[in-house]
Amino acid sequence: MVVLGITHVAEHNASACIIKNGKLVTWVEEERFLRIKNAPHFFPIHSIKYCLEKAGVTIDKVDRIATSWIPYDYLEESTWGPQATEMGEHTGMGKGFHYVQENHRFFTELQAEYHQKMCVASLTTDLPSTSSAPFPLLKLDYWKHHDCHAMSAIIPSGFKSTNFFTCDGEGQTEAGIMGHFIEKSGMTQLGYIDQMSTIGGFYAAATGFLGFTPHKHEGKVMGLACYGKVNTEAYPLNFHYNKDGLKLPMLAEWKKFIWKDMDPALRRKIQGNYISEEGTSFAATVQHYFEEMILYNIKRLNEINPCDNLVLAGGSFLNCTCNGKIAREIPNVWIQPGAADQGTALGAAILSWKDLTGEWPNIKMDTAYLGRSFANGDIEEVLKNKGIEYTHTPKPSEILAKLIHENNVVGWFQEE
Predict the structure, then answer these.
(1) Model confidence over 272-284: pLDDT tens digits?
(2) Which of 156, 242, 284, 362 is the most buried (most CB within 10 A)?
């Protein structure tokens, strides 16, 4: 039995993984092949090709392809209506909010889904296959974005019972979910974060304001925060509490403040020099608000369902400063290393495996080194072709220590 997990072209971090006979064979990111950071909105064709080669199968022998985005999910009143109503309440747009979203997103969603299906159908012609017929789209499984985030952490954690919390900028109808998982019964959702209250979107807005690229350079803001002092008076943020009792940002107000209502002289100082006292203070305050909301909501989840175990996924949980504080609060916390959208390929594959076999796959992530491996000969061939000077050494660790001591920037590769 073989399940191939892939990201959707609507997502920010392209990747693919493959589960064969219940084991995770490999999991790779498209950026490693294209040399484009994150490979946003790319169909992961190179990753798929590598996964199949590593598993020793052709594409026509794959039983299911799983992807982490449900077509037009936001158009379904049964799933979108309740969230749209709540969003309308604190945006002033009322119950018709989802129609605004529909008009805004319809054609981009339609184009993305058409592209995804055409890419999947053509895999049998683009890759080695014993069949010339298009890959049957009936074997293409769609799963909800945040369910995939959650599952990417739940099963690899090894916990038989755990709370889960996902958080990112946006994932179709949600920007985060939380709940409880029991191995025998699966996931039970206990809360959600809507798109207009997105914690990840709040941080992304601040990233863009500082002159960095949202969904790409949030780590720079986190690092910058270490040099500043929190000033909530200069940079106020209003919160609201949704029906699940989660503490969330008033995102529209926040964007209006930073781009319009902030004192123009202060804005010029920050944007003119983000490492100034004002710039670092802004970053520190943003990080403070982020941690305040995340930690509060984790406590809220534990009030709803007390549990010593917690798993986390979604791009917001790449914030290692916050993660360290979470680890001091929760006895057993497991965070998916591929927490951003690349993780949804794994989550989708896990969900399809369970759907196909009735059993959870046997995946325990003791390492994040699941990608490509290179022998010395492979590396040497590239160095020669590129005309790069190199030396062989029997004790690279000693040279590494010396280079670091001399304040050099060092790259290190080992195995995978």
Answers:
(1) 999 999 999 999 9
(2) 156
